[in-house]
Write a sequence for this structure.
């Protein structure tokens, strides 16, 4: 069982504060739940973590902020773990206030290096009486009694729409707090799209790995339609609940075709594609973490048809080219500068 992060260890140290029915928002490892055998509800927006949490008895596990098992006013203690994105904390606190029963206690835990000191301002905006009750494992633990309750919680109220334009083709893209590159077209994705213009894929069906809000798939189909050529079907997969929700909304608004799946890597993905495209993540919190992409590269050939193409954009300093060559086949660089490289590989 994976070791607990510091924030989870800090909660175990303060387990005496967990009274009545307990909800944990942002739990990441089953090791924490095994330390709290009385059970409750645990929510994670990470598909792999949610699946791991579900192996523990006495716990109801929810995937994401729109899980139908999340119900109003049912919990006496709600624990909020600090999310990576500060914008997501307001969303998580709102869910906590909706879940909380009258008189409930709200606990916020986060690491100092991840910004817990600044996050306290957001906590006090909804729970002015919040107080720091512990400092341990490089974390702070804050608690508040009877936070301001919320009568309604509707995730669609948090959706924002913005326009993405590239190569004369525009579309509206859905965003939610915590999603990658919300509100803008990041530079790496823009370069990948540029290579789709200069070197279009030869594929009727494509998989977009780590699809985020669905920008690549929706834009590519819109661009193909503008060129007067048949649009490819572009399926998408992402580990984050908000990304899956946003990608489906983006596809629906733009009329794009393709299935959007939740999966940690390719573990829940079946099928073969003629092309797979990706702008994969390389951060886990504040650390560089390429393990997700490395695992993807080891597994991706099983999902590429013979002579199928992988097209990947990454920061140029990341050591992906040798792995692509080893696991997939010959590699060429379609674009390269000091910041980014777009690789194309054909499966042997």
């Amino acid at each position: 069982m994976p070791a607990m992060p510091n924030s989870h260890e800090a909660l175990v140290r303060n387990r005496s504060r967990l009274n009545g029915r307990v909800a944990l928002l942002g739990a990441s490892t089953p090791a924490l739940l095994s330390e709290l055998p009385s059970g409750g509800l645990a929510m994670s927006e990470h598909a792999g973590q949610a699946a791991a949490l579900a192996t523990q008895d006495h716990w109801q596990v929810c995937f994401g902020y729109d899980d139908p098992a999340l119900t109003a006013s049912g919990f006496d203690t709600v624990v909020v773990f600090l999310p990576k994105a500060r914008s997501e904390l307001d969303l998580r606190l709102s869910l906590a206030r909706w879940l909380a029963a009258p008189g409930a206690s709200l606990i916020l835990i986060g690491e100092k290096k991840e910004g817990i000191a600044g996050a306290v301002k957001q906590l006090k905006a909804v729970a002015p009486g919040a107080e720091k009750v512990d400092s341990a494992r490089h974390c702070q633990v804050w608690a508040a009694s009877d936070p301001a309750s919320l009568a309604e919680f509707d995730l669609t109220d948090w959706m924002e729409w913005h326009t993405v334009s590239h190569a004369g083709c525009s579309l509206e893209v859905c965003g939610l707090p915590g999603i990658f590159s919300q509100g803008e077209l990041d530079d790496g994705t823009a370069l990948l799209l540029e290579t789709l213009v200069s070197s279009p894929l030869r594929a009727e069906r494509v998989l977009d790995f780590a699809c985020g809000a669905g920008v690549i798939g929706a834009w590519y189909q819109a661009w193909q339609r503008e060129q007067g050529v048949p649009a490819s079907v572009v399926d998408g997969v992402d580990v984050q609940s908000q990304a899956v929700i946003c990608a489906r909304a983006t596809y629906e608004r733009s009329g794009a075709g393709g299935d959007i799946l939740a999966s940690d890597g390719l573990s829940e993905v079946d099928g073969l594609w003629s092309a797979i495209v990706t702008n994969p993540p390389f951060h886990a919190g504040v650390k560089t973490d390429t393990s997700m992409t490395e695992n993807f590269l080891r597994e991706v050939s099983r999902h590429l048809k013979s002579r199928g193409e992988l097209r990947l954009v990454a920061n140029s300093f990341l050591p992906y080219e040798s792995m692509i060559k080893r696991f997939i086949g010959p590699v060429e660089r379609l674009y390269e500068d000091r910041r980014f490289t777009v690789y194309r590989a054909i499966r042997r």
User: Anything to note?
Assistant: The two ends are 37 Å apart (CA to CA).
